[in-house]
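TL;DR need structure tokens for one chain.
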Amino acid sequence: MSKDKKNTIYIVGIGPGGNKSMTIEADKVLKNADIIVGYETYLELVKDTYPNAEYISTPMRKERERCVLAYEAAESGKSVAMICSGDAGIYGMASLMYEELTDKGVDEYELKVIAGVTAAISGAALLGAPIGHDFCVISLSDLLTPWEVIVKRLRAAAQGDFVIVLYNPSSHKRADYLMKVTEILKEYMEPDRICGIANLIGREGENKKLCKLSELGDAGADMFSTVFIGSSTTKVIDGNMVTPRGYNA
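>> reply
TL;DR here they are.
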């Protein structure tokens, strides 16, 4: 592992479900990590694969504290990895770790981001080929982004005829958000627009479902789901959701 600067912290995307869909580079980094830091649920996905590491966890909504712990762990001179589900740079910890770096000192630490497989990609593989053409990713969580901003982005994506991939589509507190989204998108899309839901990607119980836009709000998506809303060219081929690249045109 590189020790170009005094303390190196690797920010690692572990993919959707532990080592099954992890990149070779991510696996190599974690095999050599002395300390692995992360959200407690994600740590459970890798502990059996990397039993020799020391594990440091924080619960949900303790992301900033998690960053501080990673920096403190790196001060020991040991190899430290901060893990995230999917890709660390897509709704992950990479950006926050860089923000904290400005306080910790760029001369004291070096951050290295290790790419992972985000749910838009792994979920698309499960559904077939729904992102074969231009697509965008939008999170429905309004914890850090105002709902008005989310709606603005949804409308823009619909008007641009993008395939739309929705992260965090529902929760106990946001049980009706996906229904709200379908009503917004119906202003721009026909009710039989092809949609797909990928559930528990890479984990036990993994499954998928295809439906129409008019059915999406009641299709049972939750926080373990990734939702795909097709473009005007998306079709179903042999039970799979497919957005043509345009070669046949």
